[in-house]
Amino acid sequence: MAGECLFCRIAQGQIPSHKVHEDATTFAFLDIRPLTKGHTLVIPKSHVLKFEDLTPKDAEALFQAVHTLLPRICQAVGAPASTVAINNGRESGQEVPHVHVHIVPRTKGDPGGPIHALFATRPLLQEREFPALAEQIRTSAAKPAR
Ligand code: AMP
Ligand code: ZN
Fold it and tell me: 62, 79, 115, 116: least CB-packed within 10 angstroms?
């Protein structure tokens, strides 16, 4: 619930944070347990669990803020690269139930790997399964929030 949500309370200034950006619809602050120096979380001010639950306008504003912040964060910590990621739903590892984009500055030799390293194994899909799967996605009636 929004009233009890940690990130809603941070965006409202009720819980202290190291703010790096704020505009009408988004807020960004340093992660308290950073994976690398400069690890930043970018959130919508509206209380929304998953990315697809955002309105198109809020989704656009969220990624606009990510776009603005990336070079600033990387310059501040001298990182030539970054990993940008969302744990989108509990099954994916999301712990705080308010959508947030992780910006993790990356440098050569840091202890992290690529997103592909999240999975120790991969499903063995037959080549003939790909066209049907792509068609299923193209014709799906599932919709994000409006
Ligand atoms: P996730 O697992 O994607 O939900 O990530 C939640 C992130 O929030 C973690 O990286 C935490 O370190 C971070 N976090 C939790 N509490 C705070 C806080 N009070 N201020 C800043 N970051 C926090
Ligand atoms: Zn919230």
Answer: 116
- Give ligand 1 pocket residues (Cβ under 6 A): 6, 17, 29, 31-33, 41, 87, 93-96
CATH 3.30.428.10 fits 6-120, yes or no: yes
This model's pTM is above 0.85: yes
Catalytic residue among 47, 98, 100, 102: 100
Assess whether 100 carries a catalytic annotation. yes
Residue range 34-59, pLDDT digits in tens: 999 999 999 999 999 999 999 999 99
What share of residues in the chain are helix, strand, coil (percent, to 5)?
Answer: 35, 15, 50
The backbone torsions φ and ψ at residue 124, rounded to the nearest 5 degrees and listed phi first, read -95, 90
Query: Is the pLDDT score of 3 beyond 90?
Result: no
What tokens does 4 get?
């009890």
